[in-house]
Amino acid sequence: MPLIADNIIVFLFRTFLRMMFRYECQSWSRSSTRIQEAKAVEGTMYPCTQVRYTYTVNGAQHEGKYKRGFWSHDSAKRLASEFTKAHSLTIRVSPNNPERSYLLEEDQLWWQS
User: Fold this and answer.
1) End-to-end Cα distance, the chain
2) What is the torsion angle, in degrees rounded to the nearest 10, for the CA atoms of residue 30, residue 113, residue 9 and residue 80?
3) Could you tell me if 49 and 39 are in contact, meaning their C-beta atoms sit under 8 angstroms apart?
4) Counts for the chain of helices (H) and strands (E), in that order
5) What is the DSSP string of 57-97?
6) Shortest CA distance to 94 belongs to which of 27, 9, 40?
7) What does the alpha-carbon distance between residue 70 and residue 79 come to, in Å, rounded to a whole number?
8) Long-range contacts for 66-72 (Cβ within 8 Å, ≥24 apart)?
9) What's 45's DSSP letter?
């Protein structure tokens, strides 16, 4: 039972963080980016998909990361494979700090949650 409670707490915390970032980046400008790597993180108790991407703002190149947690490793692998097929993404970039970026699912034309 403690393991289930632990997973629920982590899931709720991740959901809260995503909601907070979603709210903050709504007014940020959109930018296209290239995927550098998309993978399902193996060997962890909390399955997740991690995506690393690069983008350019005012001639300077930046790197960003996106991470999404799941209940199962299979779900994380499935999403990682979808990112691999996409090759490019639309991200939101902070106008005050171009090193801050966030990926919103609804900005991706190929995304089907």
Assistant:
1) 29
2) -80
3) yes
4) 2, 5
5) ETTEEEEEEEEEE-SSHHHHHHHHHHHHHH-EEEEEE-SS-
6) 27
7) 10
8) 66/102, 66/103, 68/18, 69/10, 69/11, 69/14, 71/7, 71/11, 71/47, 72/47
9) S
pLDDT for position 113: 52
Q: Most distant CA pair in the chain: distance in Å?
A: 52
Residue with tokens 């690069």: 54
Quick check: pTM over 0.85? no
pLDDT tens-digit map of 16-58: 877 788 888 889 999 989 899 999 998 777 889 999 999 999 9
Cα–Cα separations (whole angstroms), residue 9 to 3, 21, 49, 94: 10, 18, 18, 29
- Residue 106 in tokens: 């609804």
pLDDT surpasses 60 at 80: yes
